[in-house]
Amino acid sequence: MTDNLNQRPVSDVDTQVGQAWSQHYHGQNDEAIKLFRQILEKWPEHIDANYGLALALKATGQKQEAGDVFRKTKGLIEAALNNQGEDNVRYQMLNRMIDQHLTTL
To answer: Could you tell me the residue ranges of all domains in the chain?
Structure first.
């Protein structure tokens, strides 16, 4: 199976992150938090899992922890931007979105 946007094979972590994001989108934030935490036990620097965890925490009113995870994600994004990977524009956008979320906490 491939990721239609990037035309790369979808990995096990991508599938798990997708399931966690689905829980978040459907308002099942407690389950999303649980799934994101499980992912981050194996892949602690996964940007999308960290960002999703921060959003789910924010949605459940856990503002302090959400802020901590947003800041962690911002650090991971800044490191990725320094490497100038293929997701450069996406990371710049995520960085701006995190800044916006941090102002609302």
So the answer is: 7-103
Torsion angles phi and psi, residue 102, rounded to 5: -60, -35
Q: The whole model's pTM is what?
A: 0.85
- The amino acid present at 65, given as its one-letter code, is E
Q: Tens of pLDDT along 31-69?
A: 999 999 999 999 999 999 999 999 999 999 999 999 999
* Separation CA 97–CA 91 (nearest Å): 10
* 7-103 maps to CATH 1.25.40.10: yes
Nearest CA among 34, 31, 32, 40 for reference residue 13: 40
Q: Which of 47, 51, 19 is nearest to 35 (CA)?
A: 19
H-assigned helices in 3-87: 12-25, 29-42, 47-59, 63-83
Asked if 94 and 47 count as a contact pair (C-beta separation under 8 A), the reply is yes
Coil, strand or helix: which one is 97?
A: helix
* 74-100 per-position pLDDT tens digit: 999 999 888 865 558 888 899 999 999
